[in-house]
Amino acid sequence: MISMILSGIYLGASYFTFKRLERLWLSSIIWKYIFEFLFWLLQAVILYVILFLINEGVLRFYVFLAIICGYAMFKGLFEQAIVALTTWFFELFTGFIVFFTKQSNY
Asked: I want to staple 74 with a disulfide (CB 3.0 to 4.6 A). Which of 12, 17, 41, 61 is the partner?
């Protein structure tokens, strides 16, 4: 049960990060739908593997409730921290890219 709550928190964090990166491929509607489909397919596989390792893949109603509770916990408690963390990480990453591209121009 705890693992499914943690999986819901993971799902919220990964979906938030996916939406932050979505602006990179918004120019094409086809790419948007392809990446959206692949994202949800990957998340379904990851959640099922976790479920399979925890209770042999038995899918019950309380598993869905635990995932929803974990997602709600992410939205209520952790979203602001993830916003700050991903913003800091993206700024750091773009700073490194800018630094190395300026270094390669000399």
From this structure: 12
Collapsing DSSP to helix, strand or coil, 57 comes out as coil
Classify residue 89: in a domain, yes or no.
no
104 to each of 69, 97, 101, how far by Cα in Å? Answer: 48, 11, 5
Domain presence at residue 103: no
Full domain range(s) for residue 43? 2-78
pLDDT tens series, the chain, 106 aa: 899 999 999 999 999 989 888 887 777 888 888 999 999 999 999 999 999 999 888 888 999 999 999 999 999 999 999 989 988 998 999 898 888 887 766 6
Task: Give the number of domains in the chain.
Answer: 1
